[in-house]
Amino acid sequence: MTKKIGVLALQGAFAEHISILKKLGVETSEVRLPDELDGIDGLIIPGGESTTITKLMASYELADKIKSLGQSGLPIMGTCAGMILLANKVDTNGKLPTGLMDIEVKRNAFGRQVDSFEIDLDIPAIGKKPYHAIFIRAPRIESAGSNVEVLVKLPDGTIVAARDGNILTLAFHPELTRDSRLHKYFLDIVNRR
Ligand code: GLN
User: Fold this and answer.
1) CA atoms lying within 13 Å on the CB side of residue 91
2) pLDDT tier at 116 (50, 70, 90 boundaries)?
3) Of 31, 28, 37, 68, which is closest to residue 53 (Cα–Cα)?
4) In CATH, what number is assigned to the domain containing residue 72?
5) Summary mean pLDDT of the chain
6) pTM of the full predicted structure?
7) 134, β-bridge pairs
8) Residue 114 has pLDDT above 90, yes or no
9) Ligand 1 mean position, distance from CA 127 (Å)
10) I need a labelling partner for 65 at 20 to 30 A (CA). Which of 18, 54, 55, 122 fits?
């Protein structure tokens, strides 16, 4: 049976995720309302502006449902702002919508001069070929709990992708490259569930 992946479509780069998923032959749906979370096999929370998405998640009453689905094992991938929305600790104050992953995240972690950059990274979990990662005003993971598997670090040791069971977070934007290995990696998590 083909799997259906919901993409949170409140703000940010959701259309790009949907187009990659379609190329991979997966059924997709845009999620804006709580009912639209029913019947999906996985959820992607895209990059964008985490403060805006947090407010919209609260006003559309999505946050609690996403949290409980994540706690009951629904695979969720958060990219860039999506990572912030899944963390259980963030440097800036404010309400955390889900707290689903035991990571401490720093927003806009790369300063003004290099707030956007691209770099080839080794990500053993997706194969030997280097992965070209695009960072846009990205967050970083300052620390991760013992259950959390670190998937990739920058050359200076900064953690920029991690997984805790069904929850996957990336500080960069896999939807902006032609390399779909990270979406496939997420679909693997979905298919194995
Ligand atoms: N800087 C944004 C934030 O803090 C994240 C940027 C992104 O998703 N590209 O929410």
Assistant:
1) 10
2) very high
3) 31
4) 3.40.50.880
5) 96
6) 0.97
7) 118
8) no
9) 27
10) 18
Identify the domain containing residue 143 by its residue range: 4-192
- DSSP structure string for 20-74: HHHHTT-EEEEE-SGGGGTT-SEEEE--S-HHHHHHHHHHTT-HHHHHHHHHTT-
- Residue 80 annotated as catalytic: yes
Residue among 10, 44, 49, 141 to mutate when testing ligand 1 (max atoms within 8 A of CB): 49
Give how many domains the chain has, as a whole number.
Answer: 1
pLDDT for 68 equals 98
Structure token digits, residue 130? 């280097």
In percent, the amount of the chain with pLDDT more than 70 equals 99
pLDDT over 80 (residue 113): no
In whole angstroms, give the CA distance from residue 103 to residue 124: 21
Distance CA 67, CA 169 (A): 15
Which among 46, 19, 49, 51 has a CA at the least distance from the CA of 32?
A: 46
pLDDT at position 2:
83
Distance 145 CA to ligand 1 centre (A): 22
List the structure tokens of 161.
Answer: 């992708």
Cβ neighbour number for residue 175 with a 10 Å cutoff = 26
Q: Within 6 Å (CB) of ligand 1, which residues are found? A: 47-50, 80-81, 84, 107-108, 136-137
Instruction: Outline where the chain has alpha helix (H).
Output: 14-23, 50-59, 63-71, 81-86, 181-192
